[in-house]
Design a protein that fits this description.
Structural class: mainly beta
Shape: globular
Largest sheet: 8 strands, mixed
Number of domains: 1
CATH architecture: Sandwich
Distance between the termini: 22 Å
Number of helices: 0
Number of strands: 13
Length: 173
C-alpha cells in the first residue's frame, strides 16, 4: 500500500453467503434492517464481480432501507481530492424487491454520521456489473463511510454491490 492510498476492510464483501447478515468488517447503520451476503438467497444467483460473494441492499414501500458502514483506516483530509470505484448491478429477482433503486455514499466525521454525500447514483437497472467512478473532496476531515440503498419513489427494490477499489488521491495537475 502506497502513501495516500488505503483499502476498506473487506471491500469485496467476502463472507459466507447468508440472508440478513452483516459482512465482516462492516457495521449496521439502520437498526433492524441488514444486508444479504449473496449469491444464494432470495432468488439472487448472479456471479460476483470480484471474489466469490457480494452484498445486496433493499428498500421498502414504508421508506425503510438497508445501509452499512465502517471506519476508514486513515482520515480523509479536508480539501484533498480522492477517488475510488465501485461495481453495481441490480437483480431481476430479489424476493419481490425487484425494482431498480439508487445508491448513496456518505462520509462522516463520527460513526453513523452522514456529514457529506459523495455519490448519488441514478436508479441502477443493469443486470450485469458496471463500474462507477467516484471522485470527491471532503468538506472537513472525515473518518467514516456509509453505503445506503435509496428510493425516492418509495418502492421495493434492490441494488447489488461489489469490488470497492482502494481510495486514492486524485491525479490532478
Amino acid at each position: 500500500m502506497s502513501f495516500g492510498q488505503f483499502m476498506l476492510n473487506n471491500a469485496s464483501f467476502e463472507d459466507t453467503p447468508a440472508d440478513a447478515t452483516m459482512p465482516s468488517g462492516w457495521w449496521l447503520i439502520e437498526p433492524g434492517t441488514t444486508p444479504d451476503i449473496l449469491p444464494g438467497f432470495w432468488g439472487v444467483y448472479n456471479d460476483a464481480s470480484d471474489g466469490e460473494t457480494f452484498i445486496g441492499l433493499i428498500t421498502r414501500e414504508d421508506r425503510s432501507f438497508e445501509s452499512i458502514g465502517q471506519r476508514l483506516p486513515q482520515t480523509l483530509k479536508q480539501s484533498t481530492c480522492y477517488q475510488f470505484t465501485i461495481d453495481l448491478a441490480q437483480s431481476e429477482e430479489y424476493a419481490g424487491y425487484n425494482n431498480p433503486i439508487e445508491l448513496k455514499i456518505y462520509i462522516g466525521s463520527k460513526k453513523k454520521h452522514r456529514d457529506q454525500l459523495i455519490f448519488d447514483s441514478e436508479p441502477i437497472n443493469n443486470l450485469d456489473w458496471e463500474m462507477h467512478r467516484i471522485e470527491f473532496i471532503p468538506d472537513k476531515d472525515m473518518r467514516y463511510i456509509i453505503i445506503e440503498a435509496s428510493s425516492p419513489q418509495q418502492t421495493t427494490g434492490n441494488i447489488l454491490i461489489d469490488n470497492i477499489t482502494p481510495i486514492v488521491k486524485c491525479n490532478r495537475v
